[in-house]
Amino acid sequence: MNPFLSTSKRSTGEEGQYSTDELRLANRNSGLLLELLDSDITPIGAHYLLNHFDVPLLDSSAHQLRFKGAFKNPHTIGMQEIQSLPSKTMPVTLECAGNGRSGVSPRSQSMPWMYEAVGTSEWTGTPLLPLIEKAEPTADVIELAFIGADRGFDNGIDHHFGRSLTLQQINELDVLLAYGMNGQPLLPQHGSPLRIIVPGWYGMASVKWLSSISALTTAFDGHQQIGTYHLKQSESDSGVPIQDMRVKSLIKPPGVPDWSSRKRCVSAGSVVLSGRAWSGNGRQIVRVEVGIEDSWYEAELSPPIGQYGWSTWTYSWDAQPGEHSICCRATDNEDNQQPLDAPWDIAGFANNAVHRVDVFVPNN
Amino acid sequence: MNPFLSTSKRSTGEEGQYSTDELRLANRNSGLLLELLDSDITPIGAHYLLNHFDVPLLDSSAHQLRFKGAFKNPHTIGMQEIQSLPSKTMPVTLECAGNGRSGVSPRSQSMPWMYEAVGTSEWTGTPLLPLIEKAEPTADVIELAFIGADRGFDNGIDHHFGRSLTLQQINELDVLLAYGMNGQPLLPQHGSPLRIIVPGWYGMASVKWLSSISALTTAFDGHQQIGTYHLKQSESDSGVPIQDMRVKSLIKPPGVPDWSSRKRCVSAGSVVLSGRAWSGNGRQIVRVEVGIEDSWYEAELSPPIGQYGWSTWTYSWDAQPGEHSICCRATDNEDNQQPLDAPWDIAGFANNAVHRVDVFVPNN
């Protein structure tokens, strides 16, 4: 029997205990080092990375993007032509839909992110919409499927990673056909030579190693579209598709860490706490509060880094000796506010509960 | 009581179960994606990363390296001057001393690496030795201590990361004072703007964010030199200091993966297996064998990537349907050969047991 064709449900993890499969994913995927929240733009190599399958090493000079399916003008286009089109650079905050999974209880066994699956890069590319218009979807097209060159098995299904957007979403979202990141060509592990960036949505929509765009007259049935990335309360629940990012914020951990526990040691006195906050779909952060013990304090907010980047918050704290639990809570302009406790779904997606950091302030 | 000053022994982890502290380290530190073993030089951002404390964001234009202690000519030198000195670029394979820890049983709770804490970068800098000679250690100097700007607690001890080398080691090892990596300035998380690279040794010797070099007339007593990085059979064992890398090899996992188990699915027929092999202290790889089921087969070896880089091996395998366990075993020119089972020490260091990959070959 082919073990790759089994469609076993994922098991549930116990609190504070992680399986070998979870560790393997944790060692393989990588998150933002939280102290690098200090950088408006996440340094090259420090942006979070979640790849379902192996990184394909593609030849940029030979790579072609195929527009296929129900287009009046199906065609292929090479990298040189794509790079000769009008270019645009924009900072975009991306977060993995599974960020925070390890805080969801009971926990689905998948990549056990804590808080670190986020980053803000300056992406360079050409707007996608004009290229779609040039390819001319036929009148009955309802969705476009974006297929990557990465291939593997998930839940018994052999597939290339692929996701779809409706024509309406393509019109409303500022999707970028990206070939650059922080002023450099895309790194292999971030989708070289070509990917899309879907601002405001969780990262699964921003398909890497893009090899084709298919115009579809029926809904896309790819595994990554219909077999996962839904918020479900039970296996039989049809669920809600995951799309835009929930409002969220993070603290740059203050002071210095202990190597193994990562607890923080902070000197008594005035400490500037800082961090970042963001929300999805163009919503803006209007408030960040810092929670210390049982009280909330309003942080100062700076304007976001561009239209789709995170906002910066700071709060001056008078640190008194003792042990403290510090957290931060953001609210966006549609009055969405982070919950204190993790929301629950069977797969541990989109956990936007407040970020808590344990801090010790010694006596002298 | 200050919890940062406790010097508790690390607990032991159960097989197949990892603690929250271990997961936090696994999420924070990042390894090579093994499919990128295909690249002679590990792409920017994909080299393994093990940082004990927070990444300090240093201002390159203001950064100074201090030569202090028992030098006849103690002085400081800025980045501009360092970069005007004769420069040298060399590929160096670096491996974390904790690589493979998760395979050591019983397992010490620290960063639970599997196989991925390795990488080969092209490092650019200036040779260290002439700068040491210029600073003129006094006649009684026995060691030089290299201190980084990163600070935190480990085992109750507040310290900057620091390591030492004896004068003899400095004379024998080709230590580079490095400011570039793969043709770019060092990334913040890899030690920007200045670090050392100690070819042939495990990564702990290659101190990042280098801020001072101290000439010492007594042995360096920094925690990272004497409190850890020793091979010990018990807590009371004085242990053997960890220095040069043990002989080791890795397989680029063939075929395509399952997302969660990372098992491999390979099509029947001829498959070129490939990977890399390396050893420490200038020793060369003379043989790599591929183990399939109960037999060993000699792989083809290519010359190493430079004096201090890994060698490439390939082996053409006729894959028959069924489940297979494939491994590889390297031997160096001093007749050191990888063991089949993990060597043991209390901290799980330097595990160079053979790399095994589970492969399924379907019937058609």
Question: In brief, what are we looking at here?
Answer:
The structure is a homodimer of 364-residue chains. Chain A is mainly β.
Our count of domains of chain A comes out at 2
* Secondary-structure class of chain A: mainly beta
Query: Which sheet architecture does the biggest sheet of chain A show?
Result: 6 strands, mixed
CATH superfamily caption of the largest domain in chain A: Oxidoreductase, molybdopterin-binding domain
* Strand segment count of chain A: 24
Indicate the overall shape of chain A: globular
**Radius of gyration of chain A over all CA atoms, rounded:** 21 Å
| CATH arch. level architecture of the largest domain in chain A | Alpha-Beta Complex
Strand order of the largest sheet of chain A: 16-17-24-23-19-20
Describe the protein in words.
- 2 copies of one chain form a homodimer.
- Chain A is mainly beta and 364 residues long.
- The first copy, chain A, has 2 domains: 3-241, Sulfite Oxidase, Chain A, domain 2 (Alpha-Beta Complex); 248-361, Immunoglobulin-like.
- The first copy, chain A, has helices at 20-28, 79-84, 129-135, 167-172, 223-227, and strands at 12-13, 64-69, 75-78, 88-95, 107-108, 118-127, 143-154, 157-166, 176-181, 184-185, 195-197, 210-216, 230-231, 240-241, 248-251, 256-257, 264-265, 269-278, 285-292, 295-298, 300-301, 311-319, 322-332, 355-361.
- The first copy, chain A, starts with 11 loop residues before the first strand and ends with a strand.
- At the A-B interface, helix 1, strand 7 and strand 16 of A face helix 1, strand 7 and strand 16 of B.
